[in-house]
Amino acid sequence: MQPFAYLHRDGADHIDVLTGDVVTAATLADIPLPPGRPGPATLALVPYRQISERGFACVDDGAPLQCLRVAEHRRVPVADLIAELPDQPVAATGGFDIADDEYGRIVADVLRDEIGAGEGANFVIHRVFTATLDGDPLTAARAAFRRLLTAEQGAYWTFLVHTGDRILVGATPERHVSVADGLTMMNPISGTHRHDEGRELLDFLTDPKEIDELYMVLDEELKMMAAVAEHGGQVVGPYLKEMAHLTHTEYLLAGRGHLDVREVLRATMFAPTVTGSPLENACRVIARHERRGRGYYAGVLALLGHDEQGRQTLDAPILIRTAEIRPDGTLRIPVGATLVRHSTPAGEVAETHAKAAGIMAALGLRPAAARPPRATGPATDDPRVRAALAARNDRLARFWLDQRRPGELAVDALTGRHAVIVDGEDTFTAMLAHQLRALGLVVTVVPWQDLRGDAATPAVTGRAAPQDRAGGLDRPDGSIAVPDADLVVVGPGPGDPGSATDPKMAALRALVDALLAARRPVLGVCLGHQILATTLGLAVHRRDEPYQGVARDVPLFGVTRRVGFYASFTAAATADTLDTRYGRVELARDHADGTVHAVRGPGFAGLQFHPESVLSADGVAVLADLLPAVLDGVPTRADLDPVLPA
Question: In terms of DSSP bridges, do strands 322-325 and 312-317 run parallel, antiparallel, or are they unpaired?
C-alpha cells in the first residue's frame, strides 16, 4: 500500500490526508524541503537516535529518519473519515518489557545516584509495553486511530503514519516546536493527574512535586528557546491539558526567529519532558540506565512546508502516547516518567501505566476510560482552578513573562562591555546570555572544552598577550584558554566540583585560578560558584537533600532575594567574611546551616543559585546590582598587599 498519513489537530473539523513516497535521510539537514507550492511538503519521522547529531550520548538502535515526501494533500471531514475506518476489536497478548518491581528499582537508582549526586534536576526513564497483534497490522492501526478520534480528547495531534515498513499511531498531547509567520513556539507539559487515582484536581494543582516538574521543564525549554529565538522565549500560561485518562499542566513559549526550520529541529532535540535536565547529561543518564535504544519514543513527527508568502513552516509534536507496529504484528508502546527529587518508585510506576492507558484502550488492550461527562464544562470554568493556575506565576521571574521595550533594562555601567560565558554543559547559559544582553552587555558563549590546550594536564599561567588569542581566547603557553573579555562568567553544569578525575572540573579550576591570578573580573554561577568557592578556600560538600528546582527567599548582602536553585553541592562557612590572597570576601549565607548562597570580593563574585532561572524572581535585579562592582572592582597591587600571605 502507498505510504500515507492521517493527521488531526486539536479542534480541527478535518483530517489532513497525505500521500507520497518515503525516503531516508542521514541528518535533519537532509530532510527534503524544496521550494514550491504552499502547504505541507515533507512529514519526517525523527527517531531518538538523531540526538547524536548534537554530540549527545544515545544507544544507537538504527531507527531510520524517514521522510514522507508529500505528493498529494487532501482535507477530509472528520466524520467522513471515521465512517471509512474499521470498528473492530484488536486481539493481542503482551506486557511491559521491564516489570514494575524492576522499574521501581531503576527509579530509586536514578534518584540516589544521579539526582542525589548532582547529575541533574530531572530525568525521564522509559519502559515499553510489547505485544504481538493477531490479524492485519494496518487494520488494527486504522481501528485504533478511529477509537482515538472518538474517545480521546485534548491531543495536540492524533495521527496514523504508514511508511510501508512501520506504522505509528497515537494521540500526543504535546507540541514540541512549531514555526509559523516567523514565530517559534514550544509547549512544555508536565505534571500528571490520573483520573482514576482518587485525588481532587485542586490537590493535584497544589502538589509541590507536580508544580516543580512543570517549572523544571519550563526552564529547560526556555534554554532551547534562548537558542532559536532572537530574544528568547516569552512565557504564557499555565493552562490545563485535559485528556481522557489524564490531565496535565502546560505553558506556551513564543519568540521571533529566522533560522531554517531544520536547524530549529536540530537545536531543540529533544524535549526535556522526555529526556531531562540539563539535557546533555540527561542523555548520558538515559543511556546508562536504559541500556537500549528508544526507537521513535521521545523523537518527533515533523511536518515541514511553506506558507503563502514562501516562508518555511514547521509543526512538530512529540512522539509520546504512540504505538509502533511492524508488518509482522510486533507492537511497541513506550512510556516514561519524569523523575524529580520528590519522586517515589511506586508513584512513577503508576504514572507509566496511566500514560500507556489511552493508546492501549484504543488498541483494545484495556477498557476505555469510564470518565463521566462534566456537567459544568471544562475544569477551568471553576474559579478555584483558575486561581490555582494563576498562583503558579506569582513568584516567577517577570523577565520571562513580560514584554519589554529594547534597552529597558540596560545598565550604564555594563552597556557595551563584553562578557564571555563558559558553558559547563548546561544551556542555562543561553538564558543567562539573554539576561546579560538585556542589561547592555555584549555576550559570547563558549563550551568548556574550548578552554583546554594541547597539554594533557594543563598548567595555569595567567593572561596571555593579545597576539596569543585564538578564536577570541587567550592561550597562555598553549595550556589553558582564558577568554579575553571584560567579564568572564564561569557557568553552570552537572557533576561533582571536587572530582579529581573529571576533565571538565580540572579545566574550570584552572580557568578560575588563572582569572583570579590575573585579576580579571569573574562571575561564577552554580557550578562556577562552587569552583570559585573552593579556590577561595571554602569547603564544598554534597547536600543531604538535592536542591533541584527549589525557589527560596535568601539574604543577599543585606537584601532578601527570591532565587532558584539547581544544585546538589554547596559551599559552607561559619563566618560572613573570609580573608584570601585575592582580598576580603563577603559571604551571603544561611546562618542556620552555614550554606553559602553567594560570595563577592574585589573583581569577582559567585552565585550558587541561577539568576537566569524562571524560578528567580529577582535574578535580573541581582545581576544588575552585582556586576558593575565586579567589573569596576579589580584592585591595584597596593590594595592587595595587606592581605597577601607573607
Answer: unpaired
